[in-house]
Amino acid sequence: MINVASAEARRVSEAALRRAGVPAQAAALQVDLLIEAELRGRASHGLLRLPRLTDRIANGVASPTATGRMEWRSDSFLRVDGQNGLGPVVAMEALRSGAERARRTGVVVVAIAHNNHLGMLAWYAEKIAEQGLVTLGFTTSEALVHAWGGRTAMLGTNPVAIGVPQEGTPFVLDMATSLVSMGQIHDYAQRGEALPPGWALDANGEPTTDAVAATKGSIAPFGQAKGYALGLALELLVVALTDSAIGRDVTGTLDSTRVASKGDVFILIDPGLQPGTTERIGAYLDLVRASGDEQGERRVAVPGDRAMRVRAERLETGIPLPRPLWAKLRDLAGEPASPTKELT
Amino acid sequence: MINVASAEARRVSEAALRRAGVPAQAAALQVDLLIEAELRGRASHGLLRLPRLTDRIANGVASPTATGRMEWRSDSFLRVDGQNGLGPVVAMEALRSGAERARRTGVVVVAIAHNNHLGMLAWYAEKIAEQGLVTLGFTTSEALVHAWGGRTAMLGTNPVAIGVPQEGTPFVLDMATSLVSMGQIHDYAQRGEALPPGWALDANGEPTTDAVAATKGSIAPFGQAKGYALGLALELLVVALTDSAIGRDVTGTLDSTRVASKGDVFILIDPGLQPGTTERIGAYLDLVRASGDEQGERRVAVPGDRAMRVRAERLETGIPLPRPLWAKLRDLAGEPASPTKELT
Questions:
Q1: Same-domain status, A40 and A74
Q2: Which among B107, B155, B164 has CB closest to A108?
Q3: Which of A103, A124, A226, B315 has its CA 20 to 30 A from that of A16?
């Protein structure tokens, strides 16, 4: 691993995307999403996604220039054909229009199909909540998760994001409905470690603690039957609103060669916050934080607390990247492979 | 326990509410909600709630006649002051207006404050989804659930409902974000059984398997940290949109003497379903059902499957009610206490 200053990682990554034909502004947006994931300690949604993106552009399944075709199906329902554009480029274009409209109509649904991977939903929810809008975000992905009681992957990791405006940084929940990520399974496999029981099934649908076997099988939903039911409901919700592919038909979120067939849904709501409501919410969150042991094992975190702490640290110390990934990014940017400006 | 034909339970329950001053149509609506919960095997949301409701009316914290004051804050945002009316009476009045508007604007938010207990959210989501609308429903409740790592109740059981139109019966998810219900804890206490570990804390915040101690403490969120985070996000979402009470300030969902200060939020979306989408969803759900062992221990259920099976049975065999509850309902209806027309 090597620590790279986030500004340097940003510069090199943007250069890599520009070299792949992505316009400067779009490259900056896509890279900001990936850098923010790294800053918050979510490497699985970070820069490791960039080489796959340039591969996808090279393979013609991601357009470097498309920004999506928007159609207001009705006054508060924005349907978007993503034209295989870059996930955050298409989504932010749509969310800008959606947020503006939501201030007039009170609520807007943005339903996006034919768009590449959105990455970390928190990035979107935070940006919209910072504008004073309550946000719900959903996106589907390739089937990796088995039903509760099931033997094979039938569901995407189907994350949900909820953003609520606050004084200062908004409250943002962003969680997958899987127990763990396939990235975590791959980490265990790479380190040769056994998985905790209950995480995964092998290709035959049998419970396994063998991480390599699990990469060919499926991962568990979080929260047993309830988490499975929630992930399933979100799968159907997204399909009903975007007419995207469903279950095992979803492609293009993990591979480099197939068109992305999943769907993305955002609901933007102007809450018309009453005076004092955000203060009440802030005071409540402090009570929640204080409802555990202050120093003991049982600490209480509010979603986003840890991510913001890690972010503050990494803005100082840099982003830890695997050396081969950093070399790859510099290579994609057409820069010499030997690191020069990293913080270590 | 005694089995009562659902039509007879309905007749007696409606008579009890009418005697408490509830108009016939409102009584029919409120009772339908409670009977449907009984039919689906969810006694905790069933007729045991009715005597508390008549108490609340007698105590002046539930209005037998209010239907709520609706205000379109903007074209797609309906704010409702429930005027302490009966939960389903106020909500269905608002949802009728909301559903009609959603067909024009694409999406509507219905944000209700000052309303009594909604009961089973599935009832609402199903009714709206049957009209072809995708539905999300949220409601808060008195703090019973501890934060993940916390020692005291800070969150309501904050259920979420998601309805998606289908050919025939819609897909409906309806689940609390608590691991179990306080009703289940009371059942264990009544039977003198020990709780499974991990369900609850006692009044001092220590883990307990003593059900009586747990009734004075708090129950766990489902799905550990993630389920807690989801329940928390829903608490904030509802507060931001309805300006309702938050956390431990919520009253009136479990007691008979205090005004209900929680909030209810529905999001109604006209999905503009493409030809073939509901068929694709239906075929997918059948694949999900078939993804376990067909006969073995690991069966896969789709949300609603079990409820619908139980409902079909109970329409034939009647609703199992505790004898004291049935006697109480007949008493409230001004009918002789000795059962005459039950199926047994």
A1: no
A2: B107
A3: A124
Per-state percent for chain B, helix, strand, coil, to nearest 5: 40, 20, 40
Q: Say if residue A17 is in the same domain as residue A99.
A: no
- The reply to whether B209 touches chain A by the CB within 8 Å rule is no
Q: Indicate the pLDDT class of residue A340, thresholds 50, 70 and 90.
A: low
First to last CA, chain B: 10
**Is pLDDT of A337 > 70?**
no
What are the residues whose beta carbons fall under 8 Å from the beta carbon of B162, sequence distance 6 or more? A233, A234, A236, A237, B125, B134, B135, B136, B137, B171, B172, B173
Check whether residue B30 and residue B125 sit in a common domain: no
Q: Which helix (H) or strand (E) holds A155?
A: strand A153-155
ipTM over 0.90: yes
Establish, for the pair of chains A and B, how many residue pairs have beta carbons separated by less than 8 Å. 233
- For residue A104 the two structure tokens come to 């007039």
* Three-class DSSP labels, B112-129: EEEECCCCCHHHHHHHHH
Say whether both A102 and A231 belong to one domain: yes
pLDDT of A187 reads: 87
Distance separating alpha carbons of residues B254 and B160, to the nearest angstrom: 19
Both A13 and A114 in one domain: the answer is no
CB contact under 8 A, A230 and B293: no
Per-residue confidence (pLDDT) for residue A151, from 0 to 100: 96
